[in-house]
Each structure stands twice: as C-alpha cells, then as structure tokens.
Design goal:
About 40% of the residues are buried. The protein is α/β, with parallel strands linked by helices. About 45% of the residues lie in helices and about 10% in strands. Helix 6 links the parallel strand 3 (about 120-125) and strand 4 (about 150-155). Bound molecules: adenosine-5'-triphosphate (ATP), magnesium ion and zinc ion (ZN).
C-alpha cells in the first residue's frame, strides 16, 4: 500500500479522539445526543488544530445509524460510506480556490435537493474568509433560510476576516493551540501504535517545536522515522536528531531544522 503521511493516517475519527478541544467536542457531542444540532457552525483557530477533522466527525455523527454517545460509530454503512467517499452527501469546498459568487450560487441550488442517502447534507467550507464580498452575501442568504436537511460547517484560520453578519448566524467555536504536553501524549501514543522506537526527549522536542499544531508535530515526526541509507534510525534526542534531520528531509519548521547542527 502507498505510504500515507502520519498526519493523514492518524486523523481523529471520533470526537473523543480529538486532542485538546474538549470545549468544542463535548458541546457538539451533547447537541448530537440531544438531537439539538444547530444549522451552521463556525470553527476558528490556527492551523493543524483539528477544525477539518472535527467537521468530518460531525458530518458522520449526525448521520450515523448507531451513534455512540454522540460519537459516530464509524462502522455502519453510512459512516463507512462517508469515510470512503462513496456517499456524496458530504461536500468539502475550499473557499480559497472557489471564492466567487457563482460558486456559492451553485451551492445554493444544489443544497435545495434533499440528501440522496443520508439524513443531512453537510457542506464544509474551508478557509471561508477567502470568499469574495458577493459570495459572502450569497452565503448569508443561504444561512438565513437554510433548507431543513442541510448543515454548514465553516472553518477559518482568520476569524477577523469573516463578516459579523455571517458569524452571528453560526455557532462559533474557537479551537485552541494544543499544549506541548497534549501533543507529546499523542505522539507517544502514535509511536507506540506504529512500533516506533522514540526517546522521550526527542518527542518532547518535536512537541514544543510544533507550536500548538498537531499536524506540524506529525509532519515533523515523519522524516525522523523514515528509513535512511543506513537503516531506520531510532529517534535519538538532541544533536543526533538535528544531524539526522539535516541529512534527510528537514521539515524547515522545527528548531532542530533551523538551529545549526551540533
Ligand atoms: N486536535 C487534534 N487531535 C488529534 N489530531 C489532530 C488534532 N488537530 C490536528 N490533528 C492532526 O493534524 C491533521 C490535520 O488536522 P485538521 O485538518 O483537522 O486541522 P485544521 O485545523 O483543519 O488545519 P487547517 O487550518 O490547516 O485546515 C489531522 O489529520 C491529525 O492527524
Ligand atoms: Mg482544515
Ligand atoms: Zn455509524
């Protein structure tokens, strides 16, 4: 099977898997449990903190045939269909490359049709701050009179660029930067599951260099464990890790790549 980057392989699949965002996940889980789910959400926060992952979990949770305390089961035909992409009722739109008013107009038209298989259609609009003024207005109309069977999750790293008229029609959730301690725990868990032999201080170094982003931490771990010409190198802390990273694929973001080796 083709190699899959660790950060993709380890995308959280339930609300309980999402690290460091309990203020978001517990609230949404309760809404799902009580069958009181809002029609539009705005997920704000810096990169790699779990916005897209949570939006995808949400899309399964509200459509799951056998939800587990607000979490999706990830086993029923609906969950599986959404996970493998064979159910087309969940749409992800990258607003940065579909920023025009026509994109939102066609979305509006499409949203009018009921879902083919699932109970709810879900539109996940990533980088929503990148929409043009016209597109924002078209989206506003849609959020004002949403069809019953449609839910929206808007995500952004730049909340201040989202018009107040949009955010006031959404339930807003602010994703926090993940603490180094939480990142370390997750790295350790993943290393154990992957059979990666990692020293604690090496993982702590990556966790603090990631600056609150779990994706950055996992992207940084990846080259550290890739095979080298002299065989796979166990994660050694300090100078070893720095030297090895410079010889292989520096991620360019963590301080072992930025500081001189030695
Ligand atoms: N809170 C988290 N708990 C566990 N893993 C996480 C978390 N946040 C991010 N990750 C890891 O990082 C990857 C990317 O996360 P995700 O796409 O959800 O981030 P995002 O907030 O949408 O980032 P961006 O703003 O760049 O779109 C996930 O597949 C997962 O491996
Ligand atoms: Mg995202
Ligand atoms: Zn399910």
């Amino acid at each position: 099977m083709a190699y899959q980057a660790l950060y993709r392989k380890w995308r959280p699949l339930t609300f309980d898997d999402v690290v460091g965002q309990r203020h978001v996940t517990e609230t949404i889980k309760n809404e799902v449990k009580n069958n009181a789910v809002g029609h539009a959400f705005l997920f704000c926060g810096s990169r790699g903190t779990g916005k897209t992952s949570t939006a995808r979990i949400f899309s399964r949770a509200i459509n799951c045939e056998n939800p587990q305390g607000g979490n999706p089961c990830n086993k029923c035909p609906t969950c599986r269909g959404i996970l493998d992409g064979s159910i087309m009722d969940i749409t992800e739109i990258d607003a940065a490359s579909n920023s025009g008013v026509d994109n939102i107009r066609s979305l509006r038209e499409e949203a009018g049709y009921t879902a083919a298989i699932t109970k709810y259609k879900v539109y996940i609009i990533d980088e929503v701050h990148a929409l043009s003024a016209g597109a924002f207005n078209a989206l506003l109309k849609l959020l004002e009179e949403p069809p019953e069977h449609v839910k929206f999750v808007l995500a952004t790293t730049e909340a201040h660029k989202v018009m107040d008229t949009i955010s006031s029609r959404c339930q807003r959730f602010d994703f926090k930067r993940i603490t180094a301690e939480d990142i370390y725990d997750r790295l350790e868990y993943i290393c154990r599951a992957e059979g990666i032999d990692a020293e604690e201080r090496a993982l702590r170094m990556i966790a603090s260099a990631a600056d609150g982003s779990m994706r950055d931490a996992l992207s940084c771990l990846d080259p550290c464990v890739a095979a080298t010409p002299w065989g796979p190198l166990p994660l050694a802390g300090g100078p070893w890790l720095r030297l090895w990273k410079r010889l292989s694929r520096p991620c360019g973001i963590c301080w072992c790549c930025v500081l001189p080796a030695g």
